[in-house]
Design goal:
By secondary structure, the protein is an alpha/beta fold. It has 15 helices and 17 strands. β14 and β15 form a beta hairpin. The termini are far apart. Bound molecules: nicotinamide-adenine-dinucleotide (NAD) and zinc ion (ZN). Nicotinamide-adenine-dinucleotide binds next to α6, α7, β12 and α8. One of its GO terms (molecular function) is metal ion binding.
Length: 440
């Protein structure tokens, strides 16, 4: 476990792991946030970079092999997200939807609302209802089936969840279950955060994107016509249940979209994981069960660790958004749903890498490795022709990472596995990157 260091604008702040924390990680003991304050040495500097905005360095952190924790006969791995009294397990394995006790132990109250969509419902809704109710006759399950697509991740569709819960007279002791990809997870989580000011909620992610990223960490929300994910809440689930068998029905393009986020973890903080991906991309795309399980576990471990250290994104967590500022501009500019989220992020990562190279922060061998792995994953490596410099600039101006009018970006710096979150970069280089990737 390498040190995680961050320096924050005003005053600047440095966090570094103590030896005892490193030892805990080596033993496979998860970091617990109540002990963070005492386990981290904290020094505060009032930096000169006040005007320039926040800057965080996230060094490569090898995720240690954790001892397998058997929960049921089929659960191969549990990754813990350590957030004090809001901690929760991520169960990862094949056939977990048949492990009824796993789900049932996280249900609060007697009433459950499953939120899903028109594509996922015919595939998995019955299975989930059975998992919730078998041997548990006291529980009643309602479901709301939303239209499918990113363009429905908005207020009107969200309202259908509230309509159903209110018409069904749900009270505070109920549980919302998100069954689907990231769109359903983000919407159901936000509905759970807002309904009666917060009810219990469970994530059952069914896309690779949701299994490696969106279901973990408690970011929930919807889009606004002017920008992605601008309305939402931090709201953690009770558990995340990943049944890797659900990926068998996922279209290829959706699988590749999830791979973009897997690649991201390697680039920002886990060089060893990136190297594993370079060797195993074909197996991953062929849905080799052990390759998928490895990628999901390591992605969840990386995400869980970052979220445990910085739940509300005061710095380190922002590094998970490598390529996303450019990517969101593509998604917004094209119209939601035209390009998949991971496709936009892939092109965005290439742009971030290009900018990092122009700034002299990485060498060209890393630029080539990023292009090669994205091509292997059959992901785009440039934005679509219709997106102009102006479109990038106007969407980037409402990005959540703008602070005091200054756009902060996640950029690679140093050897593979290192990145910075900073507003301190040459604006001319950003203009050059935009111009080199846009036709107009
Ligand atoms: N909250 C976060 O931290 C976070 C992180 C990353 C992405 N996201 C969000 O996640 C969304 C993208 O998620 P996504 O890529 O999962 O998209 P998605 O939810 O739209 O799912 C992709 C498609 O796959 C279908 N599908 C889902 N599971 C299936 C299955 N098992 N078999 C067959 N089809 C299936 C869906 O119905 C949909 O058509 C974006 O809105 C993005 O902003 C959020
Ligand atoms: Zn993403």
């Amino acid at each position: 476990m390498a040190a995680v260091s961050s320096s924050v604008a005003s005053p600047s702040l440095r966090l570094s792991h103590t030896a005892s924390n490193r030892r805990s990680l080596r033993r496979g003991v998860a970091l617990r946030s109540p002990s963070l304050a005492s386990d981290f040495r904290l020094s505060v500097h009032v930096g000169e970079s006040v005007r320039r905005g926040l800057r965080v360095s996230a060094n490569s952190a090898q995720v240690m092999e954790q001892p397998r924790r058997e929960v049921g006969p089929k659960v191969s791995t549990v990754v813990d997200v350590d957030l004090g009294n809001r901690s929760y397990p991520i169960y990862i394995g094949s056939g977990l939807l048949e492990e009824h006790d796993l789900l049932q132990r996280h249900v609060h109250g007697k009433r459950v609302l499953v939120v899903t969509n028109t594509t996922v419902a015919p595939l998995y809704l019955d299975k989930v209802v059975t998992a919730l109710t078998s041997g548990n006759s006291g529980v009643s399950v309602e479901s709301v089936i939303l239209p499918d697509g990113e363009k429905y991740k908005e207020m009107g569709t969200l309202m259908k969840v509230f309509d159903k819960a209110i018409e069904s007279r749900f009270d505070r002791r109920c549980t919302f279950v998100a069954l689907g990809g990231g769109v359903i997870g983000d919407m159901c989580g936000f509905a759970a955060a807002a309904f009666l000011r917060g009810v219990n909620f469970i994530q059952i992610p069914t896309t690779l994107m949701a299994q490696v990223d969106s279901s973990v960490g408690g970011k929930t929300g919807i889009n606004h016509p002017l920008g992605k994910n601008l309305i939402g809440a931090f709201y953690q689930p009770q558990c995340v249940l990943i049944d890797t068998d659900t990926l068998n029905t996922l279209p290829e393009r959706e699988l590749a979209s999830g791979v973009a986020e897997v690649i991201k973890y390697g680039l920002i903080r886990d060089a060893e994981f990136f190297e594993w991906q370079e060797k195993n991309m074909q197996a991953l795309l062929a849905r080799d069960p052990s390759a998928l399980a490895y990628a999901i576990k390591h992605s969840c471990e990386n995400k869980a660790e970052v979220v445990s250290l910085d739940e509300k994104e005061s710095g380190l967590r922002a590094t998970l958004n490598l390529g996303h500022t450019f990517g969101h501009a593509i998604e917004t500019g094209l119209g939601y749903g035209e390009w998949l989220h991971g496709e936009a992020v892939a092109a965005g990562m290439v742009m971030a890498v290009d900018l990092s190279y122009r700034l002299g922060w990485i060498d060209d061998s890393l630029v080539k490795r990023v292009l090669t792995i994205l091509q292997q994953a059959r992901l785009p490596t440039a934005p679509p022709d219709s997106i102009t410099v102006e479109m990038f600039k106007s969407t980037m101006a409402v990005d959540k990472k703008v602070a005091d009018g200054l756009l902060r970006l996640i950029l690679l710096k140093g050897p593979l596995g290192n990145c910075v979150f900073t507003g301190d970069y040459d604006r001319k280089a950003l203009d050059e990157t935009l111009q080199s990737f846009c036709k107009s």
